[in-house]
Structures are given as structure tokens and as C-alpha cells.
Amino acid sequence: MDIKLIRNFNGDKCIPVEDSLMLMISDAEHRIGSYTGKKYVLVDVDSNSKQEIMPEVDKYSIYEFTDVTCSHDYVYFTTAVRNSSDGIVVSIIRYSIAEADGEVIHTENYYLSELYRKKVKVIIADKGYLLIQTQDVVSSKSDTEYLKMNDIYLYNIADQTRAEISVPLLAQSGIDCVIPVDGNICAIKIGTSNLEYKLYGMHDELCREREAIGMVNFRQLLSDLVLRKEQVVIDILDENSENTTFPHMKLMEGCIIYSKVDLTAQKEEIFAYDYANNVTKVRVNDNVRISDAWRTYLINDTMYYLQVDERCTKLINLNTQKCEWKLGSDYKVKYIKNDIVVVAKHVGRKLFFKEKNYIFVYRFPDIQNYVLRERAVCAGCAVTDDDNLLIFCT
User: In whole angstroms, how far apart are CA 109 and each of 65, 78, 115?
Assistant: First the structure.
């Protein structure tokens, strides 16, 4: 893996597209209601050339997109315009990178005041179909909220028609996430965990949606949905019970890593399913924390948990439950991929000395010798399609 520093980075998010091509997303000046506008720029990190995507169109991150086709041909985003004081029209635009042009493929009307309390997920199933799911954000008597399934339907882009999904598992629980693994094979997480609500909420309404982790041939799933079958083939790896939930799932080094939390004991089991060899490893994490950033990693075929607090950062081996690396409060781990660990260090301003920022890259477990050291602020990292590590610096 080659390492490349990208200087003068001014984006908020960078997504690999193909080879050296990246999609950089940053905030723009326009707004609609409480939604901040976005700017989309295609950047070739080799030539440092940039091309803004349809600058004449106001873009917003209103929907959450997942493309299971693994195509590098298109970029999807939402645009929106008001049609009344509270009315809003949200459109999905599919932008062709090759043709440098976009087209509206879906439009929906909302009340802006209601849209704030919805979460809309769009799965690009193939060039002709979208799976569109809506969940409602529901407040409880405590300060916690949970997501409640509203509806899910299959949208035919060419005919501009929709068909409600009648498969009970999908219609009742919804799709939390889909991750392409190998060709048409995807990992699928069904049902929303709502972990914080289940642990700490005042349950004026119980969340009893079925949850499951599984593998699915998404092209076959799409075919079954087009034919409006009520039963589809999903290879279920694990299911929840009344006292368990699945808060997280991700793909690392060819393994589907997912979390299973026992709500009563407040303990977490972490599973690593090797799809190619059909082997599952299980480890226990006794420290269940509510966090959007699930800090579990697979390093050299060993599962680790990154424990972060105000005083220090610890990398804990889940096989032994022992800390193998401890960093002080002036260090932050920014990125981990296999054995590559990117660490940022901040040295505060002192008498006669200015503040300083450094970036270190280590190849774990060799923590005594860094692979790279640079004086810069680390804004984030990404791995390109051809497996090169990019470190964005400001």
C-alpha cells in the first residue's frame, strides 16, 4: 500500500470512486430550512485536477444513499426546492461521470416540518431500480429517540412507478444497511437496533422489530421483488432475541464484522464472519458504549477495540482483553486499515512556542518505528480503488 498526502484539503468528506478519482463533499452557502447545502467535486489525486458536479444545482444531503451495484459510472445526490411555505420537492439526480451530465430519476413531495422527523434510505439496486425506505424519528418520554419503520417500496426508474414491498421481514423491519462483499453477494442487516432507546429510554412503546444479519444475492433479491414474491432467499447468519440487538455491521479485510449486544447484561459479542471460508470468530467486549463510531477493527486477523476517553486512547486485544498500545490525550487515532494505523498529534501552544500538529503512520504491531511522519493537520483518510492510502491535510 502506497501512502500519499493530499495537501490543502478543504472538504468535509472524501469518497473513493475509481482508481485515483475521489468525490469530495463540502458545505456550501445555500440552505433550505435547516438543511445545509453541499458542494460535490470530483478530484483526480494524481493530476490534482478538479471538476465540480453540476454547480448550477443546489445539492443537499437529505437522503442516505447505498449503491450495491459497485458501479463507478454514477454519482447520486438530492436537490430540493420549496413549493409552498412548508412544502418541499426533493429530487434524486443521477450524474454520469463519463457524460458530465445528470438526470432527475425520482421526485417526492414533503412538508418540510415533517421531513425533519424522517430518515429516508435509497438503495441503488441496479440502473433501472431503486429501493426507497422511510423511517420515522419518534421521541420517547425520556430524551432518547428511536426509528420506527414507515414504508419501503421498489421504484422503477423508467416507468416512474412504485411497488410496495410485501415481504414481511423487509416490510416490517426494513433494511438497516447493505454492504457489497463479492460480486452480487452482499451482507445485509435487517431491522434497526435503536440501542440507546432500548438501554436508556422510557418505553412508552417497545421496539420489537425483528433484527437479522445475513448474506444475500442482491440481483436475485431484486428479481424476486420485481416479480412481487412474498418470500425471498436471505441466508440468515444471526437473529436477535427479546434481550439482544445488532447495533453495528461493517466489512473489514474480507470479513463481515458485527456487534451483538445483550441488553440485560450490557455486554457485547463481536462476530467476524469470513465469507470465503465460512468461518465465524466470536469475541467479547465487556464495555458497551453508545457511539456512532464503532471502534472495532480487524488487525492482522485479530480483533481489537479502540477505547477512547479524555485521558488516553487504548488499543485492546479482544483475544486477551489486554491493552497493547496506549496513547496520551494529545494523540488521536484517525484511521486503521489492516495493520496501518494513522495517528494525529497536537502540541499545544506554550511560552515562546507555537502550537504544532503532526501525522504519524505506523505498521502495527511495530509501534516504536513510524512509517511516515509529517507536520500537518490530518483532516481524514481514505483508501483508493487501487488500494493506496490517501491522508488529507489542512
Answer: 18, 13, 10
By DSSP bridging, strand 312-317 and strand 331-337 are unpaired
The SS3 call for residue 340 is strand
Whether the CB-CB separation of 249 and 271 falls below 8 Å is answered with no
Rounded-to-integer distance, Cα 38 and Cα 58, Å: 7
Per-residue pLDDT, 74: 95
Q: According to the model, what pLDDT value does residue 72 have?
A: 85
The CB density around residue 384, as the number of other CB atoms within 10 Å, is 20
Whether the CB-CB separation of 11 and 21 falls below 8 Å is answered with: no
Q: Are strands 118-126 and 279-285 parallel, antiparallel or unpaired?
A: unpaired
172: Cβ contacts below 8 Å, ≥ 6 apart: 149, 209, 210
C-alpha–C-alpha distance, residues 163 and 177, integer Å: 20
Beta sheet of 312-317, edge-to-edge order: 296-299, 302-308, 312-317, 322-328
Rounded to the nearest angstrom, the gap between the alpha carbon of residue 295 and the centroid of all alpha carbons in its chain is: 13
Residue type, 81: V
Model pTM score: 0.91
Find, among 268, 332, 329, the residue nearest to 303 by Cα. 268
Instruction: Please say whether the beta carbons of 335 and 345 come within 8 A.
Output: no
d(CA 68, CA 225): 15
pLDDT of residue 173: 94
Q: DSSP string spanning 72-93?
A: SSEEEEEEEEESSSSEEEEEEE
Q: List beta partners, residue 304.
A: 297, 317
Q: Kindly give the pairing relationship between strand 366-375 and strand 356-363.
A: antiparallel
CA distance 304 to 361: 18
Give phi and psi for 260, each to the nearest 5.
Answer: -125, 115
pLDDT in tens, 276-328: 999 999 998 776 666 656 889 999 999 999 999 889 999 999 999 999 999 99
Phi, psi of 100, deg, nearest 5: 50, 45
Give 169's DSSP letter: H
Q: Which amino acid, residue 329?
A: S
Mark out the alpha helices in the chain (DSSP H runs). 112-115, 168-173, 195-200, 218-226
Among the listed residues 62, 63, 17, the one whose alpha carbon sits nearest the alpha carbon of residue 41: 17
Q: Which residues pair with 77 in a beta bridge?
A: 93
Counting as low any pLDDT under 50, the low residues of the chain are none
